[in-house]
Amino acid sequence: MLENTARHDWTTAEIVEILQQPLLDLIYRAQTVHRQHNPGNEIQLATLLSVKTGGCAEDCAYCPQSAHYQTNVQPQPVMDVEAVLTSAQRAKELGATRFCMGWAWREIREGKAFEEMLAMVRGVRSLGLEACVTAGMLNDAQAQRLAEAGLTAYNHNLDTSPEYYDQIITSRTYGDRLKTLDCVRRSGITVCCGGIIGLGETVIDRARMLEILATMQPHPESVPINALTAVEGTPLQNQQPVDSFDLVRMCATARILMPRAKIRLSAGRSRLSREAQVLCFMAGVNSIFYGEMLLTTSNPERDADNQLLETIGAVALQPFAEAH
Ligand code: SAM
Ligand code: DTB
Ligand code: SF4
User: Fold this and answer.
1) In Å, what is the CA distance from 282 to each residue of 39, 75, 309?
2) Half-sphere exposure (CA, 13 Å, Cβ side) for 51?
3) Of the bound ligands, which one is closest to the alpha carbon of residue 195?
4) Looking at the predicted structure, is the pLDDT value of residue 17 above 80?
5) Gyration radius of the chain's alpha carbons
6) 280 is catalytic
7) Quick check: 176 pLDDT over 50?
8) 253-270: per-residue pLDDT in tens?
9) Which end of the chain is more exposed for a tag (fewer CB within 10 A), N or C?
10) Which of 177, 264, 269, 280 is flagged as catalytic?
11) Which residues make Cβ contacts (< 8 Å) with residue 281, sequence separation at least 6?
12) Structural domains in the chain, sorted by start
């Protein structure tokens, strides 16, 4: 099995060197690793739905859904099970194979909303889709119940390096995040964990975030790489957009460090040209969010994505496909 060749002992210095090597060498190396471990022309299409929008207790400086900031996101009541499953059915008909549901919560709480979350997971799975939830921190018992409901993946991001973290979030610690990720791993649900670039971090911070991910054993099955969408009203509203080559470098490095993970080009894709997106695919990206909306911000149009995939001869990855 090629997984046995995956390393879990990457150092910061090694990762900084990879991130900064000449771009063409970096892409070549990432594509070589990608081809050794994954089908070359298959891209996972994941559709995202915000089940509970806005009014979040956390103070994540990038997030339009935090109750700490005045943004154009108005808090909405939680969507009901039927509406979520209608949306999942539609996503399936339109070609998605993974359905990701988000709650703007600090942590999962027991009660009606959690029981409904479990019903949504069961419903999404019964449609034959992979089901992913992102809803903040959780404990072992909650992870266990989500696993029993058939949840495929739980998303909880590191967002940035441990050193830069407290510039971005003060209402929960890096350790809290790692604890949640441990609960997910112990429950048997696959781990979806990545972060954001463009928060004002250094290249060392980027390397450190990747180092924490790539020294996990096993690696996260899924690694979303987000470029900050600077939203008016958040503390990061004036942050300069990241250079698309920095995003390519981040994706390529993630691919080299974590050969079998789904590397998902996440927030910030609508700012990329078709060519920049294809560079990301060359760099080993094999998953995208598919559909007009992320949680509260926009994503490329479905038609544009269909056309792009067709033009380059890429096809949708089947649900539950294992890397070879
Ligand atoms: N509340 C849950 C949590 O924080 O885990 C789930 C939803 S939260 C919006 C999921 C992730 O979206 C965050 O961890 C962050 O990485 C990403 N995100 C949120 N706002 C973003 C923005 N403006 N630009 C880029 N990524 C963003
Ligand atoms: C992830 O890493 N990115 C997605 C998903 N996981 C939940 C969310 C991106 C959110 C971008 C800002 C918004 O639309 O609110
Ligand atoms: Fe809340 Fe998640 Fe946004 Fe942080 S990223 S404010 S936890 S919704």
Assistant:
1) 12, 39, 13
2) 28
3) 1
4) yes
5) 18
6) no
7) yes
8) 999 999 999 999 999 999
9) N
10) 264
11) 43, 312, 314
12) 21-312 (3.20.20.70)
